[in-house]
């Protein structure tokens, strides 16, 4: 994976930006709302001396980390649970009134950005807003962008900027940072086959982490679709796990194999065409971990079939899971899944809401009674 694909400029320049704006070296990471703890776990594994904070400034899907020494951006790009990396520049108070636009203009105008704009690169302002205000995100972009133009005379380029300044209004605070990633890191580049209901790789990775598979154990996705969950597991654990990817659709299994080959992990995954109702007959040994994204039933005609499908899934899981096994399942129909799990002798030991596009499904963790 080439870091040049993700950065607005080369890594050496980005590392210079990081060194210039510290210490402390504050880096903001964005992710799927609901998996901030997974980001923190991954960060501390790689950078054990940092002090990460989830949901800083009240922002969901964000983690702020302070580094005592400047991190190498190449190391940051290896994180699998994040979407974007931002260099924290400043934060200041705002309110709901239009006067805050003047405060945003003044803050951007006074902020020392000479290192970023010394050669007048094309730039853009990106903005998110949470809360009730008399102005919009577009207003924030316009006023912040005008401040950069007035001070540095840099050209605006909304499509292919070399510098992206993020100005986010979160309730009564305004965060300003420079985005170090051009494309969200959840775009892994291995999807040559697109499943119609594919899971974001960052979310799939988080679910594998929640499952917490032990070396030498078996991990199964019995409804693997395009293979995102088995592929994310293989990219991390490779030959330390036995990884299985099953699906009822032969076309999906062909597509999953194509994706796994593109990710260079096909040799670590056993893909098969298997009906979830026949899991017990298809497996020769107990399964330690199941991680799966079953259909939500949103598409035409699927809603009524979900209870039968979830009942079949949980009955099969109750028969194939080892006594210390665990199943991690994401669904919008969490009440249906909970009842089916109870009927099958499985108990819910953990649950959380996450954001998946415009949907807010729950991840449920099931274990045998």
Features:
VC0802-like; 369 residues; Rossmann fold; single chain; 33% helix; 2 domains
Classified by CATH, the class of the largest domain is Alpha Beta
Got a strand count? 15
| Number of separate helices | 12
What is the architecture of the largest domain at the second tier of CATH?
2-Layer Sandwich
The general outline is elongated
Strand content: 25-35%
- Tell me about the largest β-sheet: 8 strands, mixed
Mean pLDDT: 93
Structural category: alpha/beta
Q: Evaluate the radius of gyration.
A: 23 Å
Q: Can you give me a brief rundown of this structure?
A:
With 369 residues, the protein is α/β, with parallel strands linked by helices. The chain has helices at 11-20, 36-46, 73-76, 99-110, 114-117, 137-152, 201-211, 228-237, 250-262, 279-282, 306-320, 334-343; strands at 25-30, 51-54, 62-67, 84-93, 123-126, 129-130, 163-170, 173-179, 218-221, 242-247, 269-273, 287-292, 321-331, 346-353, 362-368.
Write up this protein.
- There is one protein chain.
- By secondary structure, the protein is α/β, with parallel strands linked by helices.
- The chain folds into two domains: 3-179, VC0802-like, CATH 3.30.2130.30; 201-368, Rossmann fold (3-Layer(aba) Sandwich), CATH 3.40.50.150.
- Helices cover 33% and strands 25% of the residues.
- The chain is built from twelve helices and 15 strands.
- The chain has helices at 11-20, 36-46, 73-76, 99-110, 114-117, 137-152, 201-211, 228-237, 250-262, 279-282, 306-320, 334-343; strands spanning 25-30, 51-54, 62-67, 84-93, 123-126, 129-130, 163-170, 173-179, 218-221, 242-247, 269-273, 287-292, 321-331, 346-353, 362-368.
- Strands 1, 2, 3, 4, 5, 6, 7 and 8 form an eight-stranded mixed sheet that branches.
- A hairpin with an 8-residue loop joins strand 14 (346-353) and strand 15.
- The radius of gyration is 23 Å and the shape is elongated.
- The two termini are 43 Å apart.
- The model has no long low-confidence stretch (mean pLDDT 93).
């Amino acid at each position: 994976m080439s870091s040049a694909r993700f950065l607005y400029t080369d890594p050496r320049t980005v590392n210079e930006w990081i060194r210039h704006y510290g210490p402390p070296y504050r880096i903001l990471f964005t992710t799927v709302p609901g998996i901030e703890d997974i980001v923190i776990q991954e960060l501390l594994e790689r950078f054990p001396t940092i002090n990460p904070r989830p949901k800083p400034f009240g922002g969901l899907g964000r983690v702020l980390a302070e580094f005592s020494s400047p991190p190498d951006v190449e190391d940051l790009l290896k994180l699998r649970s994040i979407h974007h990396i931002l260099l924290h520049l400043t934060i200041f108070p705002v309110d709901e009134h239009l006067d805050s636009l003047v405060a945003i203009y003044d803050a951007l105008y006074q902020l020392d950005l000479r290192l970023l704009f010394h050669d007048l690169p094309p730039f853009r302002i990106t903005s998110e807003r949470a809360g009730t205000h008399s102005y919009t995100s577009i207003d924030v972009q316009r006023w912040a962008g005008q401040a950069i133009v007035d001070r540095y005379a840099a050209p605006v380029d909304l499509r292919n900027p070399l510098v992206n300044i993020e100005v986010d209004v979160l309730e009564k605070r305004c965060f300003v940072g420079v985005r170090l990633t051009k494309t969200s890191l959840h775009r892994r580049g291995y999807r040559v086959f697109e499943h119609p209901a594919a899971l974001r790789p960052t979310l799939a990775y988080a679910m594998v982490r929640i499952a917490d598979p032990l070396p030498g154990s078996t991990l199964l996705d019995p409804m693997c679709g395009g293979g995102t969950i088995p592929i994310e597991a293989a990219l991390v654990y490779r030959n330390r796990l036995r990884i299985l990817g099953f699906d009822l659709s032969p076309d999906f299994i062909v597509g999953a194999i194509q994706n796994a080959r593109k990710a260079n992990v096909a040799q670590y995954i056993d893909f098969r065409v298997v009906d979830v109702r026949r899991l017990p007959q298809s497996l020769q040994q107990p399964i330690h971990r199941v991680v799966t994204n079953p259909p939500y039933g949103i598409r035409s005609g699927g809603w009524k079939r979900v209870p039968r499908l979830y009942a079949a899934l949980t009955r099969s899981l109750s028969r194939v899971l080892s006594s210390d096994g665990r199943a991690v399942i994401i669904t919008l129909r969490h009440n249906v899944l909970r009842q089916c799990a109870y009927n099958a002798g499985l108990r819910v030991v953990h649950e959380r809401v996450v954001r998946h596009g415009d949907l807010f499904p729950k991840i449920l963790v099931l274990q045998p009674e």
